[in-house]
Amino acid sequence: MTDDEAFTVTPYEVEGDVDYEKLLDEFGADRLTDEQISAFPKPTHPLVRRKVFYAERDVDRFLEAVNTENPHSLVTGRGPSGLMHIGHVFPFYFAKYIQKQTNALVYIPISDDEKYLLKDLPLEKIDGHTRENLRDILAVGFDPDRTRIIVDTADADVVYPLATAFAKEVTQATVDATYGAPPNIGISFYPAVQAVHLLLPQLVDGRHPTLVPIAVDQDPHIRVCRDIASKQRYNVNKPGALLSKFLPSLGGPGKMSSSDDAPSIFLSDDRETVFEKIRQFGFSGGQSSVEAHREQGGDPTIDVSYQFLAYFFEESDDRLDQLAREYRDGSLLSGELKDIAATQIADFLEEHQRRRAEVGSLANELMPYRLTENERSRARKRVGYPTDAVVEW
Ligand code: TRP
Question: Keywords assigned by UniProt (predicted)?
């Protein structure tokens, strides 16, 4: 492999030009088939229809539960390493969409421990990001009766006993082989914590299919968790997964990261900022002059503005096809396409920000989404932890 082709994808590092197909062979996940796509509830979410979620594990089992109206759940979480950008939010909007369609249970874990262990940030910074991120997640608008939000350090009474039980199932050699050598012993333990996240709906509510819509770099966590789940004593299904590509960064294909040269579009950006960022940094598939563009046309497949629309921000397939056609034949200019993308993104963000502004005190707002005492003790009991031991002391 030459350096050009080299890429790394682990939960802790995404680098280079990702070959999504090769990654599946490496990880052992399967491509999402057209048949599976057609089994999703209708109307099919654009992220599924357009194969942004392009791969899966055990999605059939989840879809069967959906289509027979049996219990099923989704788990999608957030590592609070900073403010959220548009690449972070689409799994949450996806989960909400499915919840509306099927009344799915949704669990949303926040791994503040993971990001403290991984990033060079003091605890109070991580805590600040947790609070900001929670406001964004609340703004998405999940059904409080069918949704649970868990913060690792704040819900340690349930997370820690379960993680301890699961950690015992995983050897250091497995962690090293799955993730590479961990930078510290906390990161070495963390896969057990994420396994708690992925199994929690079943540990609270009994065995049922769970689907984890997640970016493909998180698949190692799914694999480790599936190994743990295969132990008879827990009586749980292995969690299924719906694995997504990364939203391209403004600067061109690859994961939108907060650290490369082109800025990310944050959920807090106002309309003007969105336009400025896209106009200035948006990688274009157009030609370098208007004349050349009119003559030769542009390439939507590498154009970031088009990709943003195709990934998430333009719902209509017809409109999307029309834009691609006009871009290719040169009648739609790169600047015009940028402004169309910026408009759609700014409209989406304004709606999000309007709902976010309505979120009041975090403690109050979170209350209906927190695990009840009964749910906590049910989960602890499932791994053999004496039910209310802590409370009884
Ligand atoms: N590890 C994820 C990240 O770094 C965040 C996360 C924690 C998560 N638990 C999860 C994502 C469960 C999906 C499901 O982004």
Answer: Aminoacyl-tRNA synthetase, ATP-binding, Cytoplasm, Ligase, Nucleotide-binding, Protein biosynthesis
The structure tokens 């340690």 sit at 156
Determine the residue of 13, 73, 112, 114 to mutate for testing ligand 1's pocket, defined as the one with the most ligand atoms within 8 A of the Cβ atom. Answer: 114
For the domain made up of 269-357, give the CATH fold. Answer: Tyrosyl-Transfer RNA Synthetase (1.10.240)
User: Which residues pair with residue 266 across a beta bridge?
Assistant: 85
Which atom of ligand 1 is found nearest the CA of 109? Answer: 9
Q: Is residue 43 reached through a cis peptide bond, with omega within 30 degrees of 0 on the bond before it?
A: yes
81 ligand 1 Cβ < 6 A: no
Which position has the token pair 């006993």? Answer: 161
How far does the centroid of ligand 1 lie from the alpha carbon of residue 192, in Å?
12
Predicted confidence at residue 1, as pLDDT, reads: 40
Burial class (CB in 10 A: 0-12, 13-18, 19+), 86: buried
Mean per-residue pLDDT, 255-272: 79
Band (pLDDT 50/70/90 cuts) for residue 253 is low
Please work out whether the CB of residue 211 comes within 6 Å of at least one atom of ligand 1.
Answer: no
> How many CB atoms are closer than 10 A to CB 318?
8
DSSP for 34-48, written as a single string: HHHHHTSPSSPPHHH
* Token duo for residue 104: 């799915």
Encode pLDDT of 24-33 as tens digits. Answer: 998 999 999 9
Three-state secondary structure call for residue 212: strand
State residue 3's pLDDT score: 47
- Pocket of ligand 1 contains residue 76 by CB under 6 Å: yes
Segment 186-196 mean pLDDT: 98
The pTM assigned to this predicted structure is: 0.94
Q: Kindly give the number of the ligand 1 atom that is closest to the alpha carbon of 212.
A: 14
Give the percent of the chain with pLDDT over 70.
95
Q: Class of the 7-249 domain?
A: alpha beta
pLDDT tier for residue 320 given thresholds of 50, 70 and 90: very high
Q: From ligand 1's centre to the CA of 195, what distance in Å? A: 10
Only one residue has tokens 């805590």, namely 127
E-strand stretches of the chain? 7-10, 13-16, 30-31, 53-57, 73-75, 105-110, 147-151, 210-215, 240-244
pLDDT of residue 369: 98
Residue-range domain boundaries for the chain: 7-249, 269-357
Give me the phi and psi of 54, to 5 degrees please.
-110, -10
Q: Which residue has the tokens 């599976």?
A: 36
